[in-house]
Amino acid sequence: MMSSLTVTAMSELVIRKACDVDFGDIYALEQKCFADPWSANMFDSFKRSNVTEAAVAELDGTICGFACIYVFDGTPECPCGDTELADIAVEPGCRRMGIAKKLLEHVYVRSKERFCSNVFLEVRESNTAARGLYESEGFCVTGRRKNYYASPREDAVLMKKELTAK
Ligand SMILES: CC(C)(COP(=O)(O)OP(=O)(O)OC[C@H]1O[C@@H](n2cnc3c(N)ncnc32)[C@H](O)[C@@H]1OP(=O)(O)O)[C@@H](O)C(=O)NCCC(=O)NCCS
């Protein structure tokens, strides 16, 4: 993961499916980016699940962002599966460069490949950066879960994006 950051006009960004060895960097980035981060156990059960996948963003070969999703496949006959965006984060020094947007584009592509028509997520009410991202991506608010989050306690805003509509 990045300890210091040099982003130039020549820097190359690659978005790819995560593999097992990436989870050390993903875990470290998670601890850096959240007040109530996922624990190592949470990542272990995420990796063990057969309905999960993750993507990483690499800047000049160094992981600077990730997205973790649950995918409940549809079928070609009934392309009505669902994707749940469980976690997404970008290295603080690499924000507002469009990296989360690129990770979400990857999530949409993977979802469509697996015959999913909706992406769902929940976000802390006060998380203006994430809410700004999701709104700019066409997610709409579908509900709220009172006191869903701890440390600090806060409501979750539920959002959804239909993949057929852009
Ligand atoms: C939310 C987060 C992933 C966004 O990553 P990012 O790479 O900086 O986002 P992008 O550069 O792709 O931003 C795309 C758009 O989202 C919106 N956006 C992103 N950050 C924003 C902010 N701080 N305030 C308002 N809108 C914001 C903007 O519309 C932005 O487009 P613009 O830069 O052209 O204005 C990043 O801030 C982060 O890692 N936060 C901590 C972890 C977190 O909260 N994850 C979400 C959990 S639900």
Notes on the protein architecture:
- This protein has 166 residues and is α+β, with helices and mostly antiparallel strands.
- It has a domain at 13-120: 3-Layer(aba) Sandwich (Aminopeptidase).
- It is 27% helix and 37% strand.
- It has a 7-stranded mixed beta sheet, sandwiched between helices.
- Strand 3 (62-72) and strand 4 (81-90) form a beta hairpin.
- The N and C termini lie far apart (33 Å).
- 23% of the residues are buried.
- The mean pLDDT is 95.
User: What percentage of amino acids are in beta strands?
Assistant: 35-45%
Structural class: alpha+beta
Which second-level CATH architecture of the domain at 13-120 applies? 3-Layer(aba) Sandwich
Q: For the largest beta sheet, what order do the strands appear in spatially?
A: 1-2-3-4-5-7-6
Per DSSP, the total helix count is 4
Shape: globular
The CATH C-level class name of the domain at 13-120 = Alpha Beta
Question: Secondary-structure blueprint of this entry?
Answer:
Blueprint: E1 13-17, H1 23-33, H2 40-48, E2 52-59, E3 62-72, E4 81-90, H3 99-113, E5 116-124, H4 128-136, E6 140-149, E7 154-162
Parallel strand pairs: 4-5
Antiparallel strand pairs: 1-2, 2-3, 3-4, 5-7, 6-7
The site of coenzyme A has 20 residues, from strand 4, helix 3 and helix 4.
How would you summarize what this structure contains?
The chain has four helices and seven strands, in the order βααβββαβαββ. With 166 residues, it is α+β, with helices and mostly antiparallel strands. It has a domain at 13-120: Gcn5-related N-acetyltransferase (GNAT) (Aminopeptidase), CATH 3.40.630.30.
